[in-house]
DNA sequence: ACGGGACCTGACAA
DNA sequence: ATTGTCAGGTCCC
């Protein structure tokens, strides 16, 4: 540790249960589109640092990797105007090779790291990013107690939190999300970082860039370039919104739209990084969810749904309920929406009605609860639902067996029954349960015994219906009944 | 105000 | 293989 300054911190850990936070779900359920999982570790650039995470049952393990010129990077949002369409990695940078295959962009000017040991800063940042001050299990209980449907769906999807993300990044990411799928949204957000964001470092051979600021995306050629990159009609929205935010709104405009009860993301460097240059503009309107929602809708490509996503995940308004196709489906299927003659089709009035309903039954963090049901409804997570339910189902079968065995045990030991259950997954929706029973009967004289072996195979098909597992078939067939075997001692 | 299309693209199922 | 549908919607008429 002598000569070369390292910008990679050691792994640290934060005590945290999986019911309070499950990163495997939270980082994949369509809130952030930027986290990448490599060999059981999650990585993402936040505030100019590469944050790495892994989790076990008791702890969230984390480490931060930052370039020594991080201060400069986080302050320099502006000077990124791509002149070349194929601009990607700024090459003329010194890279420091680390032991574990980690490279970090390093400005040759300062070979001096400020805060390698400052991991409290990272911990504070993570508590803020994951909004850990709220007890998630307590909130789940509250939502479940006031809503039977939530109580039914949520047990298979614990640990889903709303991330406290950067507002600008959230805004752009969800402009990309319109009429789109998570896979492609992630690709698009990645392209934005790659082509317009500053290079931060390399982990396991993969390069990591930060998310570009509004100024970087406000150029006149951005729209055409983004179209070439496959953004489709969203290219115009992004360029327009970037221009508006960069030039037609006061500095710190987005920050002023935050929920005051949910403080802004803590600075990673332990303070001093954020430029406290705004805040002087007198904003007479008291910040509120409604006002924030209206202000965002003014932007290009931002309708009510995208606005609510930014309110919820980027600005700390927990009551914001983004109503998308999934939530609309849920509202119709589980909350009797669209049944009455009025709101059969989906209108703005319907949108507001759905949100109001969920705010009414779930309370001030309705958006958090929405995220749980949304995730449970995602196709990419349906296997998790069926898998969990199959487990529950097979557990129930085993309980039945145990009861039977207990009943037998009470009798004088005329026979001994041994049972075994084999559960095999046929598909994501169908599970085969084989029950093998061996009965050994003891008859006659002590010396002689009759052994009767019977094998019963029970096939239980579990069908996925409305995302709900039901036992569609419980057929018991005797495959083989062996003859009596007479043995002698 | 309300209803209906168009809109880029790519993955995935018939 | 081609075609159709769907994906965390928004804009415009």
TrEMBL record:
It is found in: Nucleus. Residues 176-371 form the HhH-GPD domain. GO terms for biological process: base-excision repair, AP site formation; nucleotide-excision repair. Gene3D superfamilies: 3.30.310.40, Helix-hairpin-Helix base-excision DNA repair enzymes (C-terminal), Hypothetical protein, domain 2. It comes from the Eukaryota. GO terms for cellular component: nucleus. InterPro entries: DNA_glycosylase, HhH-GPD_domain, HhH_base_excis_C, OGG_N, Oxidative_DNA_repair_enzyme. Keywords: DNA damage, DNA repair, Glycosidase, Hydrolase, Lyase, Multifunctional enzyme, Nucleus. It catalyses: 2'-deoxyribonucleotide-(2'-deoxyribose 5'-phosphate)-2'-deoxyribonucleotide-DNA = a 3'-end 2'-deoxyribonucleotide-(2,3-dehydro-2,3-deoxyribose 5'-phosphate)-DNA + a 5'-end 5'-phospho-2'-deoxyribonucleoside-DNA + H(+). GO terms for molecular function: 8-oxo-7,8-dihydroguanine DNA N-glycosylase activity; class I DNA-(apurinic or apyrimidinic site) endonuclease activity; damaged DNA binding. Its EC number is 4.2.99.18. Belongs to the type-1 OGG1 family. This is DNA-(apurinic or apyrimidinic site) lyase. The lineage of its organism: Eukaryota, Fungi, Dikarya, Ascomycota, Pezizomycotina.
């Amino acid at each position: 540790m002598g000569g070369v300054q390292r910008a990679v911190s050691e792994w640290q850990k934060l005590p945290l249960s999986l019911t309070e936070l499950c990163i495997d779900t939270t980082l994949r359920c369509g809130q952030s589109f930027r986290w990448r999982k490599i060999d059981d570790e999650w990585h993402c650039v936040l505030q100019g640092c590469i944050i790495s995470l892994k989790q076990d049952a008791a702890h969230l393990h984390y480490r931060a990797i930052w370039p020594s010129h991080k201060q400069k990077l986080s302050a320099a949002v502006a000077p990124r105007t791509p002149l070349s369409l194929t601009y990607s990695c700024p090459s003329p940078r010194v890279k420091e090779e680390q032991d574990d295959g980690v490279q970090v962009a390093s400005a040759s000017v300062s070979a001096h790291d400020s805060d390698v040991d400052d991991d409290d800063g990272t911990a504070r940042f993570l508590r803020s990013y994951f909004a850990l001050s709220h007890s998630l299990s307590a909130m789940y209980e509250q939502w479940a107690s006031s809503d039977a449907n939530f109580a039914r769906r949520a047990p298979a999807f614990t640990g889903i939190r709303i991330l406290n993300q950067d507002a600008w990044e959230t805004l752009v990411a969800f402009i990309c999300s319109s009429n789109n799928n998570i896979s492609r949204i992630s690709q698009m957000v990645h392209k934005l970082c790659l082509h317009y964001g500053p290079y931060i470092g390399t982990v396991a051979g993969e390069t990591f860039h930060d998310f570009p600021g509004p100024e970087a995306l406000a150029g006149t050629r951005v729209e055409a370039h983004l179209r070439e990159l496959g953004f489709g009609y969203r290219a115009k929205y992004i360029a327009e919104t970037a221009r508006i935010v960069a030039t037609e709104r006061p500095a710190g405009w987005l920050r002023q739209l935050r929920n005051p009860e949910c403080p802004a993301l803590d600075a990673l460097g332990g303070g001093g990084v954020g430029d406290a240059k705004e805040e002087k503009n007198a904003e007479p309107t008291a910040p509120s969810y409604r006002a924030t929602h209206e202000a965002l809708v003014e932007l290009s490509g931002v309708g009510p749904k995208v606005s609510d996503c930014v309110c919820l995940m980027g600005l700390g308004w927990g009551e914001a309920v983004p109503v998308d196709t999934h939530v609309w489906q849920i509202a119709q299927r589980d909350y009797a929406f669209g049944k009455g003659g009025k709101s059969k089709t989906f209108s703005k009035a319907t949108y507001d009605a759905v949100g109001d309903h969920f705010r009414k039954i779930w309370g001030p963090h309705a958006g958090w609860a929405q995220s749980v049901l949304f995730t449970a409804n995602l196709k990419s997570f349906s296997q998790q639902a069926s898998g969990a339910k199959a487990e529950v189902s097979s557990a129930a079968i085993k309980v039945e067996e145990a009861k039977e065995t207990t009943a037998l045990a009470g009798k004088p030991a005329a026979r001994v029954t041994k049972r075994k259950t084999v559960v095999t997954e046929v598909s994501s929706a169908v599970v085969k349960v084989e029950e093998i029973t061996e009965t050994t009967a003891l008859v006659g004289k002590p010396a002689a015994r009759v052994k009767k072996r019977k094998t019963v195979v029970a096939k239980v098909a579990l069908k996925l219906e409305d995302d709900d597992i039901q036992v569609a078939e419980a057929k018991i067939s005797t495959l083989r009944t062996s003859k009596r075997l007479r043995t002698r001692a």
